[in-house]
Queue: 2 jobs
Job 1
Amino acid sequence: MLQVVPAILEKSFNEMVEKVARVKPYTNFLQIDIMDNTFVPNETFRDAARIATLDATLEIHLMIDKPALYFQQWALPNVQRLIVHFETIGNMEHDIALMRTSGKEIGLAINPETLTYEIKDYLDMVDMVVVMGVDPGFSGQQFQKDVLEKVKEMKKWKPELLVEVDGGVNMYNRDMIEAAGATHIGAASALWKAEDLGTAWKALQGVE
Ligand code: DX5
């Protein structure tokens, strides 16, 4: 079954707390989007000390330049996984090894225009690949379904690879994402803008 990861892209801490509470009946594992107007043209709430007080287990999606300089502040007790963008990393071997010293799982995210061969040599160095279905920066964009070819290709290379598809995921495209071999889906608007969160949750999971 696909693991659904609610994604929080917010400018206010109160909104974060509210969203964690809203999905509490379904999951305790969420993604927090961190943007600082460098890698993407948007900013989110990013006071790590307050995010550390969220009552949830988190993956932190760092949409920032030079994550190897800043990852330490995100190695919080309630963080399980740090997701960093391939496009922001200077030296993969060096920077991933450095970020591994955090003791956190490392997810490697790729933008829609980044090709699989660019990361092929690094799949064994990370715990997960995050395939972006949209250009990162904003919620509510349309899913670029061509990215599923990348999921299929990487799963051929490494069947046990954990692959999260993030951006533009909804109840209508979740089946093709699962069929491509993804193990996780990140979703924001499909959950937060749904009329009924419980119904949306089940639809994303693929449970009737
Ligand atoms: C895209 C973010 C996603 C985003 C998903 O910039 O990385 O995590 O929150 O939003 P939706 O599900 O609305 O596309």
Job 2
Amino acid sequence: MERDYDHSAVEQRWMKEWIGHNYWSAPDFPEGEKRYTCTMYPYPSGDMHMGHVEIFSIHDAIARFYRMRGYQVMNPIGFDSFGLPAENAAIQRGLDPKEWTYSNIDKLYSSAQRLGCSFDWDRKIASSDPEFYKWNQWFFLKFYERGLAYKKAAPANWCPNDKTVLANEQVVAGRCERCGAEVTKRYMSQWFFKITDYADRLLDDMELNEGWTDRLKNLQVNWIGRSFGAEVDFAVEGGDPITVYTTRPDTLWGATFFVMAPEHPVAEELVKGTDNEAALARFKEEVAKLSEIDRTSTERAKNGMFLGRYAINPVNDERIPIWVADYVLMDYGTGAIMAVPAHDARDLDFARRYDLPVRVAIQPPGDQLDAATMSEAYVGPGKMVNSGLFDGTRVDESVKKVTDWLESEGRGKHAKNFRLRDWLISRQRYWGTPIPIVFCDDCGEVPLPLDELPLELPESSTVDFNSDSAQGESPLATAEGWVHAPCPKCRKDARRETDTLDTFVDSSWYFHRYLDPHNDEMPYDRARSDAWMPIDQYTGGIEHAVMHLIYARFFQKVLMDMGMAKDPEPFPHLLNQGVVTMGGKKMSKSLGNIVEPQEAFERYGADSLRLYMLFSGPPEANFDWPAEGVDAIGPVAHDWLKRVWRLCEENRDVVNVGELHLNPADDALRKYLHRTIKVVTVDYGAFSFNTAIARLHELVNQVYRYRSVGGGNPQVLREVITALLKMLAPIAPYLAEEQWRRLGHDTSIHFESWPSFDPSLAAEDEVTMVVQVNGKVRDTMKVPADITEARMTELALASRKVRSHLNGDPKKIIAKPPKLISLVA
Ligand code: ANZ
Ligand code: ZN
């Protein structure tokens, strides 16, 4: 046995053993308490990068910790392997998307194994396998049956470079988030999933997600964007009435003009045959260039056009001019608004720009508003004014009162609205799941029968990736032999749908498939899914806070309605890891600021890399990798592991047969050990690995100190080393395994139970520390009475509760040991 720490030999040995003997395979039905740990399955864009290393290190430490805590752990992995980069490789370099994808998958699997991830390798899935996407098609057809999948013509964001439609969230400042090309609007026939039918449930069930940060919850809540208000009918001079949606019907008396979305069909009617007809058409073209985000931005100057027509305010019969403006959207509410500049910021901007009248309808307590000079819309409390019989009504009851009255008068009604739109699932791409629909001249849109699934993609050699897709068709349309298909109803020649499914469909249910990955009769067996679901700990990037999480939550609810799932929420606990950067920028080949995991494996080993990552800060924090690159791992992580290694080597062979006589130094070290176990266990439970590692550093120092002053009780040393290795096992699994076996064990440390502490030894004088953020108490915790300022800060910043109230690092920290620490955000 080598006495020196040869990380390569150690890691190769255990990697082979773990994989060869299926160490991490989980049963279909857990015995005892379970933990389903799942990490958002990655996209195979190449070999492993530091982003993967970070999330895998965090995730794997969690899974291993749970295993040692006695849970049965399900820890699967797979690949989100459909998507754009594979297709771009085909377009730009003539590669076969399938080959490109699967060779990346192979590389990533072997790197994940090299990193020591404890995944159940028998449950591997890839969404581009026909065995997987068959079930996407199956779900599509089931959704179609339930009226949840439909095709409609709608203006779509079109990226002329990627030649596909983009979701609104993929358009940033009018440009494609991926390639930067200017996005245009295009009227196209597209498939949608009717997620809006589930909007209320998506919102109301948010409270079940107890393990989500407030920040994340808010992102979802705002995205769903439920508001309550009223629909009010406005008569139009010489035309039919138009309905508006407003959240503030109590400000009706302050409405001084009327605005429609330029695309509103009535706008065209209103100007037909007048001088404004051509001007409206031009204006519409201008507005079409803007994204929805630009249009609703509060910063941008708003543009509009008077239509030369008038509406009648139903509460006071006043004649108000009808405008169209870019800030009013066609697909929100009714596409028309009453403008109340005194109380709505966007309306006020617009009124000042076009010199339209302003009238106050709510007066605040104290200083009175002056319509002529006010520069900010007033949205606070107050009483209704200029409002006839409602004058004096307080704002906290005015909305309800006015709406009830409108309803009784037959001029309006209570209404609610969502910002959430139906999910656009069509993509004009080859490398995705074909949508199982055929268009027949006689029978129209015909779904494929279930027994014809999977409808496989044609070989990429039969597809022309560089054909001119100006008509917005998928490259699949060029696969002549594939496109023609007999109509399932009448058998006449018909054409297949050539759009493929958004890959967010795949990621909406893959976590069920893990639980029954080889099923070829159903997407998965309900009993197997029920046995492990919900996911007890989900990990992944905050960039998925909106789309993936909402879509998967929606899917889960449909699965429930289909009798295929029991839990309303699929992942009630979610951890979002930070981002790894270098020089403040995202690591990328083109910037030359990358650290290659392979190089780290070779020079320092997987354990050092994992340790380095986890020590870099709390899991949720961003980490800027230092300029020295891979060398940074040496002093911070590798040297310390060598120190641990040496400690084990030097103290293992001391054998003691006699009784346990403890001198004061032995007692002190044991006390230190038990305290460490206590604290480290709490840290692990909170995924605060960096603080746990710091504690382990201290413990190792204590042992060396003990030895240097003559301490050497073999039983004490063995107790310390045993516990140290166990506490290190989730972070540096290879070294822990090797040294564990060298202690003489013939089974793995990774199935040992977590060390327990003796409360009487671990007892410390404790006090309650209070953590304030901006003067408000956000967390309390038990801490040793002799705690240092540094440790207080560390603990405060490691608290999830505290962090959810901080935006990044605090501006100021005032620690008053041991009882109070206060942070300024
Ligand atoms: C009059 C009013 C007065 C409004 C006031 C607000 C404050 P949320 O909460 O987001 O649902 N609105 C309605 N439809 C719109 C559309 N298609 N495009 C742009 N804006 C639209 O906001 C609802 C409010 O947004 C509505 O209430 C309407 O302005 C505007 F003191 O009506 B309000
Ligand atoms: Zn037919």
